[in-house]
């Protein structure tokens, strides 16, 4: 199972909105609404930001939102803040009780 | 409060095996799946496998089939991950994380265990 495709890096200025894409196939992202997104700061464990494509866990800022179209899921961060600078990973169910992560995207706040 | 506490760092020689632990507390152990995820230095997250502590069913990523075994002990609320035939490319931080049956999204993570494979 190959990693889902994400851009290596995305950047934006404070207050701007950015979108991170996560492209899979009809075997994973395209077939299931089981995409989640994780934020990881250096030296830390990942943190759940979005689950089931669009749902936000309690305590996660509403500046984070998720969507999906076909085989591509997306994470949008609006009102970009310095604390959003981190790595972001998508994760999807891939059928037959298997799962796959995206390759990861480094978000820089300029 | 929910906690997943992992065992300490390991240094192993190529060809050896390693068995890591992940002790759960603060929730009903058998109500959540436990996954293992690894991250090589400077690299991304890789899903390795999962166990349903209620019954012990396991699934493994194809890349680790035959080398990884995940087990659970309900008496101590602990999940174990054993990786055999270690090679230098297995040097990584290994995380355990819990998820509900649906959705399979990781709401709590262990602190990670560094495994270094070096001759």
Structure description:
The complex is a heterodimer of chains A (110) and B (119). Chain A has no helices and nine strands. By secondary structure, chain A is mainly β. In chain B, strands 2, 4, 5, 6, 9, 10 and 11 form a seven-stranded mixed β-sheet that branches. In chain B, strands 1-3-8-7 form a four-stranded antiparallel β-sheet, with no helix packed on it. In chain B, strand 4 and strand 5 form a beta hairpin. At the A-B interface, strand 3, strand 7 and strand 8 of A face strand 5 and strand 10 of B.
How large is the radius of gyration of chain B? 14 Å
Low-confidence runs of chain A (pLDDT<50, min 5 residues)?
A: none
- Measured between the Cα atoms of the first and last residue of chain A, the distance is 34 Å
- DSSP strand tally of chain B: 11
Give the ordered list of helices and strands of chain A: EEEEEEEEE
Mean pLDDT of chain B: 96
Given as residue ranges, the uncertain stretches of chain B (5+ residues, pLDDT < 50) are none
Strand content of chain B: over 45%
Q: Please state the structural category of chain A.
A: mainly beta
Oligomer: heterodimer
| SSE ordering of chain B | EEEEEEEEEEE
Q: What is the count of DSSP helices of chain A, taking H or I runs of 4+ residues?
A: 0
Describe the largest sheet of chain B. Answer: 7 strands, mixed
Alpha-beta content class of chain B: mainly beta
Helix-strand layout with pairing:
The complex is a heterodimer of chains A (110) and B (119).
Chain A: E1 9-12, E2 18-23, E3 35-40, E4 47-50, E5 64-69, E6 72-77, E7 86-93, E8 99-101, E9 105-109
Parallel strand pairs in A: 1-9
Antiparallel strand pairs in A: 2-6, 3-4, 3-7, 5-6, 7-8, 7-9
Chain B: E1 3-6, E2 10-12, E3 18-25, E4 33-39, E5 45-51, E6 58-60, E7 68-73, E8 78-83, E9 92-99, E10 106-109, E11 113-117
Parallel strand pairs in B: 2-11
Antiparallel strand pairs in B: 1-3, 3-8, 4-5, 4-9, 5-6, 7-8, 9-10, 9-11
């Amino acid at each position: 199972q190959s990693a889902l495709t994400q851009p290596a890096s995305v950047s934006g200025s404070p207050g701007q909105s950015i979108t991170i894409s996560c492209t899979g196939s009809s075997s994973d992202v395209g077939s299931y609404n089981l995409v989640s997104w994780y934020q990881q700061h250096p030296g830390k464990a990942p943190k759940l930001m979005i689950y089931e494509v669009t749902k936000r866990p309690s305590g996660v800022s509403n500046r984070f939102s998720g969507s999906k179209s076909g085989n591509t899921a997306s994470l949008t961060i609006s009102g970009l803040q310095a604390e959003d600078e981190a790595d972001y990973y998508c994760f999807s169910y891939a059928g037959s009780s298997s799962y796959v992560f995206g390759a990861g995207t480094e978000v820089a706040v300029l | 409060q929910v906690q997943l506490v992992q065992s300490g760092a390991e240094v192993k020689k190529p060809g050896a095996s390693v068995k890591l632990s992940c002790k759960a507390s603060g929730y009903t152990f058998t109500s959540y799946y436990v996954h293992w995820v690894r991250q090589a230095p400077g690299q991304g997250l890789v899903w390795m496998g999962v166990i349903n502590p209620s019954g012990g069913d396991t699934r493994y990523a194809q890349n680790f089939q035959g080398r990884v075994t995940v087990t659970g002990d309900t008496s101590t609320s602990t999940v174990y991950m054993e990786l055999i035939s270690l090679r230098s490319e297995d040097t990584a931080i290994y995380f355990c994380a819990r998820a509900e049956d649906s959705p399979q999204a990781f709401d709590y993570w262990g602190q990670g265990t560094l495994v270094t494979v070096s001759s």
